[in-house]
Amino acid sequence: MRGYCSPTAFFHDFGIYDKENKGYITVDLSRKILVFLDQPHNQLLERLRPFLSHDKKEINIKITDKSQKQGLRTKNVILRGYASVIFCTAGLHIDEQEATRFILLSPEVNQEKIKQGIQASIRKESNNKEYKSVLEENEDRVILKERLQAIKQEAIEEVLIPEELQKEIEKRFFEQNKILKPRHQRDIKRLICIIKALALLNLWWRNKNSRTIVAVKSDVNEAFALWEKISVSQELNLPPYIYKLYLEVILPIWNGKNGNRDGEIAEVTGKIGITRQEILQKHFDVYGRMLDGNQLRQQILPMLETCGLIIQESDPSNKRQKLIYPTALFTVSNNKQYSETSSGVLGNSVIQCGVNGLESYPTTELTISPTKQYSENENGVNNAVEIALNVFNGAKVVQYDH
After folding, report:
1. Distance from C-alpha of 82 to C-alpha of 54, rounded to nearest angstrom
2. d(C-alpha 206, C-alpha 239), whole Å
3. Which of 31, 214, 215, 351 could staple 219 via S-S, CB 3.0–4.6 A?
């Protein structure tokens, strides 16, 4: 876990100097989880692009470093993968090349979560020792940690997918994506990674041969259910928070201004655009807090325009003002979640990120419902996408905090 790391320091910190191999610096990140508390340096992300794409197991990277006597010197680095890479950021801008290499997630910010966060802060700041004790002794949290440790001790090296499931994955993926895009070649790898992660979470109920297990149909079904919740925002290269803002703020304004207009009048006068001030006011009405105007103008609207959800045109009656027009109008199910479904903080009685109902491991197969909250009688993992991918050590997750 790192708070900040410069592009060059990353390789020196993790690398081991190998004199026998022509002085190469070997950075072994296989089966590791790299967590950055904030967005890493842009140049570091750029240098890690082949590594994040899983282009090769071992990648040769050349970096320059200053020497006391000889000025700049070239150093050879062997970067060995693969690792899970996670970082959090309050910013909304990310380069498109990095966006296609990460899964973009956003935390929920509903009133219940904020309330529980305040309650947790009161308990922590009032008696930090007691708060940590309660956290460490939480039964669900302990069971989850024990399960992950047990998975690690099994030392599974490979998860196989039978041929009949391969055909089903192919059929369902093509049905969901009628028009294929280059990024789908990466998306299918993420989907398969989720399938393998779910099989790994339930390895005691899978066919096992030495250090290899075989995925089953339920793993495929659960993986597609999880992927469906985030696939739309991933396809658009948008954090779920931005996509949710588009659905809950911009589209309602548009429908309110244009939905009940007479068709003939609308054809003559054209559609009525949305102003930025209307978006700011609607955001306050929906979320109960003001949105920064500069952030809306400089980050949010350009991201929506880049992915093709809106266009911005000058107001004919006021050239200094821009009007926003949605370009992709479609219906989205109200039952779907596009961000985390629970508060993610320690509540009054149970932490909402554990395997519930397991007195010891392994006793019950772990399943993940895409729509239901988990209870003591329904064994599941909250924030399932992140936990599952991290267990398998093969994917990259970026979480946007706002």
Report:
1. 7
2. 34
3. 215
| C-beta separation of 356 from 376 below 8 A | yes
- 6-48: per-residue pLDDT in tens? 777 787 776 777 776 666 788 888 888 888 888 788 888 888 8
Task: Please say whether the beta carbons of 395 and 230 come within 8 A.
Answer: no
Domain spans in the chain, listed from the N-terminal domain onward: 7-89
Tokens (6 digits) for 365: 């197969």
What the block records as the tokens of 281 is 């006011």
Question: pLDDT by residue (tens digit) across 160-194?
Answer: 999 999 999 999 999 999 889 888 998 999 999 99
Global pTM exceeds 0.85: no
Name the token pair of 196.
Answer: 């393998």
Query: Cα dihedral angle (310, 244, 392, 221), rounded to 10 degrees?
Result: -100
Q: Is 301 exposed, middle or buried (0-12, 13-18, 19+ CB in 10 A)?
A: buried
Omega of the bond leading into 182 within 30 degrees of 0 (cis): no
Q: Which residue has the tokens 């479904």?
A: 341
- How far is it, in rounded angstroms, from Cα 77 to Cα 85? 19
E strand or H helix that includes residue 399: strand 396-400
- Within 8 A by CB and 6+ apart from 178, the residues are none
Confirm if 150 and 361 have CB atoms less than 8 A apart.
Answer: yes
Q: 62: which 2 tokens? A: 């050349």
CB-based contact 66:116 (threshold 8 Å): no
Judge contact between 226 and 234, C-beta under 8 A: no
Six-digit token pair at 325?
Answer: 């027009």
Which among 191, 172, 175, 171 has a CA at the least distance from the CA of 183? Answer: 191
